[in-house]
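Researcher: I'm preparing a figure for a lab meeting and need a structural model of a single chain. I don't have an experimental structure, so a prediction will have to do for now. The sequence is pasted below. Please return the structure as tokens so I can convert it later.
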Amino acid sequence: MHLPRHVLIRCLLLVGCVLPVPSMAEMTTLTIPDQGWGVTFDAPPLRPVREADSNDHYMYYGNANLFTVALYVDTPACDGADTHENVLTCFWSKTGKEPLINQASVQKSCNSQYCKLSYDLENSFQGKSITQKHWHFLFAYRNKWANLHVFVANPSAQDLGTLEKFEQSFHYQ
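Model: Understood. Here is the structure written out token by token.
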């Protein structure tokens, strides 16, 4: 027994709408203009939304559906030495007061390459609960302070795996 072609096409379309589309990751490099360095990471193909460069500041913002990457490179914003820990302390002193951050979800760690800050931002929209998983890779490099910010809304297990691969592949030079 064969299904009519229009029934088969409708079934395929329905399945395509119900099943998640796997996101293929690729190595991405963002080069910081006039600085001689850049950051590289493994992420779904990003669609650049905004990029700005002026004197000592650089900003990139791109996304792949609900997966978003933002990079901010700037002159130091607080007093202190150019250390990853100082970037974290300065950033968290300003960001930590955000009322939508679930304080129980906050995690901080540092290694020789960066300090990582992660937290969940919780809110609701049109009666639906929304959780955004935020990861910040904060580092000092060549007299600049950088914040590589990655976040995803209502992350699935696959999204969390993508975040893990992002972290494992992230480096700058």
